[in-house]
Write a structure and sequence with these properties.
108 residues, mainly beta, lipopolysaccharide transport protein A fold
Length: 108
């Protein structure tokens, strides 16, 4: 189950688009993901979620990404991150060696 918190939410049954705006917070406990943005839109007919405006997506003990706009293609499990004009996308990934151990820190 996914929970969406926001200042305003609208659903359009004709287009199949659900829009959440203002202080958007999305919780996806099954995947241990929390996302925040200024706006989120779910295009149910296309299986596409678009987060826009200061987007942060964090997975507990996993990767995180910051961008101006993130598109998630649900069926393909594919993420497309776009920066604001003149900026860059920031991604962080935990690095582990085979066997699940983190690499040793370099000697000072």
């Amino acid at each position: 189950m996914i929970s969406i918190e926001s200042d305003l939410q609208r659903a359009d049954n004709v287009t199949g688009v659900i829009t959440a705006s203002g202080n958007v917070r999305i919780l996806y406990p099954d995947r241990q993901v929390v996302a925040t943005a200024r706006q989120a839109q779910y295009f149910s007919r296309e299986g596409r979620v678009v987060l826009s405006g200061d987007v942060d997506v964090i997975q507990l003990d996993g990767p995180s990404i910051q961008a101006e706009r993130i598109t998630y293609l649900v069926d393909q499990e594919r993420v497309i991150a776009e920066p604001a004009s003149g900026e860059q996308v920031l991604s962080r990934f935990p690095v582990t060696r085979r066997g699940g151990q983190e690499p040793a820190a370099p000697a000072p």
